[in-house]
Design goal:
This protein is mainly alpha-helical. It is built from ten helices and two strands, in the order αααββααααααα. The protein has a two-stranded antiparallel sheet. The longest helix has 28 residues. It starts with 6 loop residues before the first helix and ends with a helix.
Length: about 160
């Protein structure tokens, strides 16, 4: 990667060499292999990547829309409802897990007395967030996960 590369080019390069192979493609591989499905990623064929890389940035992003030129090509061949929809990532149902199978583990780590004794986190907002999450009046799974990871780390190293 050249020092003269623009910020968006540097970010695209980082996606290509780290985020894709270390995260997204790993998840696709595990998920597909887990059910005996052979998955292909045709847009990552080196010829497609090289062609896309050669295009000017104005054809890749326009008016805040990414993959602009790809969307224009798709409009001619694929019904709009297939390509004009929100992204659906590889998220896990963490909120449900915390209300279900992981509830006892989380409850132990988020115990009010424990939080007071350790003294790193204010128990009141943590417990309120946990209460709302359990009641279903909010989905705070990812916020709680950060706290739980800290608590688990603390438990391991204390």
């Amino acid at each position: 990667m050249s020092d003269a590369a623009s910020f968006p080019e540097k970010m695209m390069y980082l996606d290509l060499v780290s985020y894709l192979p270390d995260d997204i493609l790993t998840k696709v591989d595990r998920a597909s292999m887990g059910v005996g499905l052979e998955a292909r990623v045709p847009l990552l064929d080196h010829r497609v990547v090289e062609f896309a890389w050669s295009l000017p940035h104005s054809l890749k992003v326009r008016g805040g829309d990414s993959k602009w030129i790809l969307r224009k090509v798709l409009e001619k061949h694929v019904p709009r409802h297939f390509h004009e929809r929100p992204k659906m990532g590889f998220g896990i149902p963490l909120g449900e897990w915390l209300r279900g199978d992981l509830r006892d583990w989380a409850e132990d780590l988020l115990d009010e007395g424990r939080l007071h004794r350790e003294g790193y986190l204010r128990p009141e907002p943590v417990r309120e967030c946990w209460r709302q999450h359990l009641e279903g009046s909010g989905d705070y799974g990812y916020q709680l996960w950060d706290v739980l990871m800290f608590q688990a780390w603390l438990q391991h190293w204390a």
